[in-house]
Amino acid sequence: MASPATRRIVGAAMTGATYGAAALAIVPLAAILVMLLTRGAGSLDWDFFTRSAVPVGEPGGGFAHAIVGTLLVVGVACAIGIPIGVGAGIFLAEFGGGRFGWVVRFVADTLNGTPSIVIGIFAWAWIVRPAGRFTALAGSVALACILAPLVARTTEEMVRLVPNSLREAALALGYPRWRTSLTVVARTARAGIVTGCLVAIARVAGETAPLLFTALGNQFFSTNLLQPIAALPLQIYVYALGPYEEWHRQAWAGALVLILLVLILGTIARVATRSRHERA
Amino acid sequence: MSAPLAPAPRVRPAAAAPDGPGAPAAIRGSLRADHYAFWYGATQALFDVTFEVAPRAVTALIGPSGCGKSTFLRSLNRLQDLLPRTRHTGDLLVDGASIFAPGVDPVALRRRVGMVFQKPNPFPKSVFDNVAYGPRVGGTAGEAELPALVERALRRAARWDEVKYRLDTPGTALSGGQQQRLCIARALANEPAILLMDEPTSALDPIATQRIEELVVELKRDVTIVIVTHNMQQAARVSDTTGFFYLGQLVEIGTTQQIFTSPGDPRTEAYITGRFG
Questions:
Q1: Is B85:B165 a contact under the CB 8 Å cutoff?
Q2: How far apart are CA B173 and CA B121, in angstroms?
Q3: What is the rounded distance in angstroms from the CA atom of residue B98 to the CA atom of residue B101?
Q4: Interchain contact, A166 vs B121, CB within 8 Å
């Protein structure tokens, strides 16, 4: 049995250690942001958002084609992946007790642990090669394969948090089981599900590897889903590897835009969760 | 207002008997358990429960924790069906018809046999939407009839004056007692013939409890009420008939006065005099 004084010292030391760990966790994010701001902010101008790439040697040009490409590819990936993910998550939480549920959960966890480049290769083998060309759609499918299992597992966790008493209340009022799950349960968990989706979107928006063999990238402005398309991470990758000073500057700016996009999504997710707590 | 003391005669499940609102008024709201037994996996929770509940009366089920009274109550609207690895034998009859007969839809049954839970569980929606929930999904009322229906249900269960200006506030923002009355109104909006109450006041303060008890006595004019309670004074105050459950068996059932003044079984006497439980 430690003396009160010792206990106080140990307690203070432990509290200090947790503060230290929390501060350390913030350091990388702060360092990245500072670096991106110093190197990239200078290149952010109106042209960067409104103009596409220009031929090498010509000054100016921007990332408009990559920004629009990312929005398109990620948007289509959401249209494919979120319904599947949310549906699977509700299934897992509400009816996933049996063997099939176990299999789905196992597959989702395996997919979540699969390196994204493997998913890119998969999409290349199954979509790009049979189609004979790189397409934005193939990129979306690859991203959807990452998105859906992530969303499924977070949705499952959120739906599990809904108190059983609410389920029983709806059932006792004469609700069919599926309707209880879809309306009462899913609606109560809505804020959490939205948060999970936003976090997953932020994750796939920054993915490069699955797009390398699928969307390929494009120096020109395109909104055609059946043609190769540019995306922020791809454009950053290409420009960062390139030999030109101008490209490097723009790659930094692109990285800044990408991380701001992710931060905005994260902030929206935070606000969504907070309003849930206020309502409760 | 008394239930027969002798076990009800054994009857076969009456699948073809009248069902639902079409049932003759005389038996609307009647309830009978016929050698009903229930298992959770290998554990038997109820043994050979047989009794009859008079329509439009309050029946209280008392007994120590784990005696099976809630299991029995939740069997009456087939909520227990949803639990995995459970089974039953015997039969339960509502309005003279077996609730387990093929062709009985448990979802439709639950609209006729409403339920109020131990902890108030309003949906995180407005007061109005909470009450309108049942009729909306049941298709029993068009959107235009809902306001009148909601008002009627709230008038029966709550102090309408307390809530009429708060129809848009979330049900979860009300006080505990008001939440529970909202849950009762929500159940009443389905116009059930039978209302099951599973310790409806155990989470409430004494004043809220008193209001719920007054409400129970009022409601029995047109609804059969089965109430599970740990509070023997409450059983004595609100019920016409009292049944005592012990270790999964219905030890004794009779008029509330008889159970509390001259119980026939020594175990009942021991329980109501506070020697165990």
A1: no
A2: 12
A3: 5
A4: yes
Q: How many Å apart are CA B243 and CA B258, to the nearest integer?
A: 11
**Cα dihedral B126/B129/B133/B139 (nearest 10):** -170
Which chain B residue lies closest to A172 (C-alpha atoms)? B110
What confidence tens digit (pLDDT) does each residue in A197-250 have? 998 998 999 888 888 888 887 787 877 888 888 888 888 998 889 888 888 888
Parallel, antiparallel, or unpaired: how do β-strands B58-62 and B241-246 relate? parallel
Cα angle A158, B74, B149; round to 5: 80
Distance between CA B108 and CA A200 in Å, rounded? 40
A22: its two tokens: 């929390």
* Minimum-distance CB partner of A166 among B77, B115, B123: B123
Tokens, residue B258: 């008889």
Q: Mark yes or no for CB contact B107/A97 under 8 Å.
A: no
| B183, B117 Cβ separation under 8 angstroms | yes
So what's the ipTM on this one? 0.80
How would you classify the pairing of strands B194-198 and B113-116?
A: parallel
* Residues A157, A149: Cα–Cα separation, whole Å: 12
- H-helix segments, chain A: 4-40, 46-50, 64-95, 99-113, 116-123, 129-131, 136-161, 164-172, 177-179, 186-188, 190-205, 209-212, 232-241, 245-279
The partner residues of B114 in beta bridges, in order of sequence, read B195
Both structure tokens of B127:
């007061």
Q: How many helical (H) and strand (E) elements, i.e. helices and strands, does chain A have?
A: 14, 0
Q: Is B108 on the interface with A (CB under 8 A)?
A: yes
CB atoms closer than 10 angstroms to residue B249: 17
Distance CA(A240)–CA(A253), nearest Å, equals 11
Cα–Cα distance between B220 and B223 in angstroms, integer? 5
**Of A240, A213, A239, A235, which Cα lies nearest the Cα of A222?**
A235
How many whole angstroms separate alpha carbon B258 and alpha carbon B254? Answer: 6
Q: B222, B156, B212, B221: which is closest to B189 by C-alpha?
A: B156
b/e sequence A94-113, b meaning 16+ C-beta within 10 Å: bebeeeebeebbeebeebee
Q: Taking a contact as any Cβ pair under 8 Å apart, which residues of chain A between 135 and 174 contact chain B? A: 163, 165-166, 168-174
**φ and ψ at residue A218, rounded to 5 degrees:** -160, 135
Who's near B108: CB < 8 A, 6+ residues apart? A174, B20
Binary contact (A170, B187; C-beta < 8 A): no
Question: What CA–CA distance (Å, rounded) separates A77 from A214?
Answer: 13
The per-residue pLDDT for range B177-236, each reduced to its tens digit, is 889 999 999 999 988 999 999 999 988 889 889 989 999 999 998 899 999 998 888 999
Q: Encoding tokens for residue B5?
A: 């003391």
Q: Contact B192/B221 with Cβ under 8 angstroms?
A: no
Q: Give the pair of three-digit tokens for residue A177.
A: 């089981």
